Structure formats: structure tokens, C-alpha cells
Amino acid sequence: MMTEVERTREFMENLVYAEELILDSVQGLNRGCPVGDARKQIIGTEKNCKLIKLDSTFMSENPYIKNIQIGNWIVGNVCLTKTPIYESYKTYNYNARKRDPKTLTSLYELCYFSENMHIPTIGTVFPDMKWMGVEPCEMNTFSSFIEEASGKILLMGCGLGYVAYMLSLKEEVEEITIVELDSDVKKMFELYLKPQMNSKIHIVKGDAIEFLKRENLSMYQYCSVDIWHGAFEMFPIYLKCLLLEVHHPKTKFHYWLEEDLYIVLETFWIILLRKLVNSELTNKKAEIFTNILFDQNIETLEDIRKFILAPKRQFIKEWVLNHPKEAMNHKGFDKTLKL
């Protein structure tokens, strides 16, 4: 009969193996992989990677796509265009990753259209790089915040003004203030996008972290932070924001891609937990993840399950408040990190 320690070791070995298999299956599928190839690539992991066919009305009936006219505009080194397309029958991100509550494995959703779709995007001229676009994943990952928010709202990061516009259509929303650091993005918004929107929306130039440090946010019911391009870039800024959140108790905070960040963090912790139950050493560069893990007093397999499935913001915030210097100075994920 297996002991608790042996069961825990076996479970962690199987979980790490499953996660590696799923990750290998979905690598490269989120940006233009033919649907036929995607279906072949995910054989054996279909429960963890859904391919969703979207009708063109998913885009065409969206109020922003329907009402905001996008040209080929350049301001400084920033370009706003509608030229890039989602090619027909190719797969793209559809939503933030999630975790299966039974198996603890990660879940992916990818989408495709049966016809070419033009997507408004913003990015730089040199180098020719896309920052973000009004696309299915963007729509989905902001939908719950847009649905919930009311009153006066603060948005950290402008982008194409999608969130601001969608919020401005709600009667319950009184005013939206955008804080944008990039002068070219701010000017682009003021010249071409703001005139197509209503008077609820205002934009100011500023750094989000500095704004949170010095400004009184008590007038805002909600604050949404979207100043990163993905989860890997997000983590150090997220720590700083959680540390500054406590100065604004009347404001409810939302972080774009927070769920996706948790999946990345949980992957680190799953690998660490496997090493810890096997009494293996971990890399010094993983110290922040190990320290947060140790604060949770994990001893049994049930503790591991509860930890992996638990909402992460509160206990990360508790660690941040207890270690403010480390939180403010953290540089982010080392992509060469070997746990």
C-alpha cells in the first residue's frame, strides 16, 4: 500500500508529465497554424485544447468594430491599421488559459474563422511590430470587467481605446480616464479615435506606477491595468501594482491577463513542488517562487490541490506586503530559468 508521500510523488510526476505533453501539443498553434495541422498536433490532448470555429459576425457585430473607423495612420513611430488579417482556417488565441479543477492540467482555447478577417492593430513602425489588436482574445479577456464596471473608471494603458469605448456605451459608467505613457499613442488616440467616441472618455499622459504612487484614486470605483504585452512581461509590474493597491482601498482593481499569469506561475510551482517532494535542489533564480510557496504551509496532496486551484491574488498580495523591497525590485521571469 502506497504511503501519502509516495502518492504525492506519483501524482506530481504524472502532473508534470501531462503539463509538458500539453505544452508540446499547443506550441505554435496560437498564431496562424492551419486547422488541419492543429487537429493532428493536439491528438491525445483534445480535452485540454479546444478548437472553436467562429462566425464572422463575432467580429462584425462587435460595437467597436461596427462603429469605429480605422485607417492606415502613423503618428511618430506608432502605426494604427486594419491591414493585418486572421487568415481563414488558421488558429489563433481565443481566451486566457485556465486550469482543469479535476486533473489540475492547463486548458487552452483556440479559434478560427472560415474567411479572412481584418483586425485593427496598433504597434511600431520601426521595428515593424504589433503590440495589440481588437481580436477575439482581447474581447474575451476584457468582457467580464466591461460587464461589471460602473461609475468612474481609471484605465492604465490606452491601446486602441477598445475597453474605454465599450465602457462608455454603458449607462452605469459616468466617466473614463485613460493614463497613457507613450506620447505618440496618446496623440494617435486624440487625433483619430477620440473624435469617434463620446465625451465620457478623457486621456492624460503618465506612468501607471507613478500615478498609483502619487494620486488619490478615491473618486474611481474601478481601475484596470493593461500595460504589458503578455504574462511573462506582466509579473514584476503586477507585484508593484499589488503593493500599491493597498493605498486605494475604495477602488476595485482589474489586471488584464491575470488568469493567464496564474497559469504561468502555477506551472513554475508545479515543477517546484515535484522537486520539493523528491527533496531535490531548486535554482537560486527561482527563489521568489519558492518563498511564496513556502508561505502556504503545503504538506499533503490535498494541500497541493487546494494551492493550485486557489485564487492567487490574495496570497501573492500578502507575500508582497511582507516583502515590499523584493516586490519593487523584482525584474521578472528569467526565460533561461531551469527549475
As residue ranges, the low-confidence spans are none
Largest beta-sheet characterization: 5 strands, mixed
Rg, Å, rounded: 21 Å
Individual helix count: 14
Structural class per helix/strand content? alpha/beta
Percentage of β-strand residues:
15-25%
Shape summary: globular
End-to-end CA span: 31 Å
The total beta strand count reads: 16
Helix content: 40-55%
Strand and helix order: HEHEHHEEEEEEEEEHEHEHEHEHEHHHHH
Overall average residue pLDDT: 94
Structure overview:
By secondary structure, the chain is an alpha/beta fold. It contains 14 helices and 16 strands. It has helices at 4-26, 35-41, 57-60, 63-67, 136-148, 162-168, 183-193, 208-214, 231-245, 258-277, 287-294, 301-309, 313-322, 324-329, and strands at 31-34, 49-54, 73-75, 78-81, 85-86, 90-93, 98-99, 106-113, 117-118, 121-124, 129-133, 151-156, 173-180, 201-205, 222-225, 252-255. Strands 1, 2, 6, 7 and 8 form a 5-stranded mixed sheet that branches. A 5-stranded parallel sheet has the order 14-13-12-15-16. A 4-stranded antiparallel sheet has the order 3-4-10-11, covered by helices on one side. α1 crosses α10, α9 packs across α10 (258-277) and α9 (231-245) crosses α13. The longest helix is centred in the first third of the chain and has 23 residues, at 4-26. The chain is globular, with a radius of gyration of 21 Å.
